Amino acid sequence: MPELPEVETVRRGLAPAMEGRRIVGVEARRPDLRFPFPERFAERLTGRTIAALGRRAKYLLADLDDGETLVMHLGMSGSFRVETATDAAAPGAFHHPRSKAATHDHVAFRLEGGATVTYNDPRRFGFMALIPRAGLEAHPLFRHVGLEPLGNALDGARLKALFGAKKTSLKAALLDQRLIAGLGNIYVCEALHRAGLSPLRAAGSLTEAEAERLAGDIRVVLEEAIASGGSTLRDFSHADGALGYFQHSFRVYDREDEPCPTPGCGGVVERVVQTGRSTFFCARCQR
């Protein structure tokens, strides 16, 4: 699954082509993706103007001028391609290039001005939904989605309050989408290493100073990843077709048995499995 920075890079790549544009035609080339398309999907979108293109957790949100929101999730292999009369680009940053096979082009949005935005998804684990904007946060997709980790909403006090006296591991708590939205395995490993905190310790054991440090490092790691185009792991790719380079600056993720990059540490990156996911950390400098 894409992590928050991957989805945000896709959003930023699509926004110039979609925001403020009227949808002049929609072609859904199959009745479903992971779930069936909404009733009268193409009809409800045709003629609508995209007022804004946002993001909530790992969902792309296209706010329409009639009060509905087109919700889009990339699933495991979904990507968008923007085509004009003179150019074509695929927003996002992913390790393995996204599919360009036309057989996996499932939805095409024709926009005022001549651009076409096509959704391609070989595995069809992505989906699209139409939800009234006023009821978005109460919708089952979003009702239990946690705090956004970017911006000022997440600080040490809020993080400590979210964790409370939880005895679950710090890593598991950070991956709990009901607490913090959009964090995934890669960036949790990276943020914990920067903060010098062991992924194995109890989430509720953080001091106020440690929680404040961790909140700041979460934001820094995500912002750096967004600025450099996402992690580029697996299949996800930028809207403009460019590959990011943040994967080359990973401190611990996928660096088992390599020297810890913390100056003066002298430790080695270890790998353990937590709740079915690989965790990379340095036992010497992550306490």
TrEMBL record:
Q: Which SUPFAM superfamilies does the UniProt record give?
A: Glucocorticoid receptor-like (DNA-binding domain), N-terminal domain of MutM-like DNA repair proteins, S13-like H2TH domain
Name the reaction it catalyses: 2'-deoxyribonucleotide-(2'-deoxyribose 5'-phosphate)-2'-deoxyribonucleotide-DNA = a 3'-end 2'-deoxyribonucleotide-(2,3-dehydro-2,3-deoxyribose 5'-phosphate)-DNA + a 5'-end 5'-phospho-2'-deoxyribonucleoside-DNA + H(+); Hydrolysis of DNA containing ring-opened 7-methylguanine residues, releasing 2,6-diamino-4-hydroxy-5-(N-methyl)formamidopyrimidine
List the active site.
P2 (schiff-base intermediate with dna), E3 (proton donor), K58 (proton donor), R277 (proton donor)
Instruction: Give the Pfam families listed for this entry.
Output: Fapy_DNA_glyco, H2TH, zf-FPG_IleRS
Tell me if Ion transport is a UniProt keyword of this record: no
This protein's source sits in the domain of life called Bacteria
Q: Return the InterPro entries for the record.
A: DNA_glyclase_Znf_dom_DNA_BS, FPG_cat, FPG_Glyclase, FPG_N, H2TH_FPG, Ribosomal_uS13-like_H2TH, Znf_DNA_glyclase/AP_lyase, Znf_FPG/IleRS
Which residues hold DNA?
A: H104, R123, K166
Please give one Gene Ontology molecular function term for this protein: oxidized purine nucleobase lesion DNA N-glycosylase activity
Q: Which cofactor does it need?
A: Zn(2+)
For this UniProt record, the keywords arranged alphabetically read as follows:
DNA damage, DNA repair, DNA-binding, Glycosidase, Hydrolase, Lyase, Metal-binding, Multifunctional enzyme, Zinc, Zinc-finger
Domain FPG-type, residue spans:
251-287
Database matches in SMART domains: Fapy_DNA_glyco, H2TH
Relay the cofactor remark from the entry: Binds 1 zinc ion per subunit.
Identify the EC number(s).
3.2.2.23, 4.2.99.18
Annotated ranges, domain Formamidopyrimidine-DNA glycosylase catalytic: 2-126
Family listed: Belongs to the FPG family.
How does this chain assemble?
Monomer.
What exactly does this protein do?
Involved in base excision repair of DNA damaged by oxidation or by mutagenic agents. Acts as DNA glycosylase that recognizes and removes damaged bases. Has a preference for oxidized purines, such as 7,8-dihydro-8-oxoguanine (8-oxoG). Has AP (apurinic/apyrimidinic) lyase activity and introduces nicks in the DNA strand. Cleaves the DNA backbone by beta-delta elimination to generate a single-strand break at the site of the removed base with both 3'- and 5'-phosphates.
Its name, as the record gives it, is Formamidopyrimidine-DNA glycosylase
The scientific name of the source species is Methylopila musalis
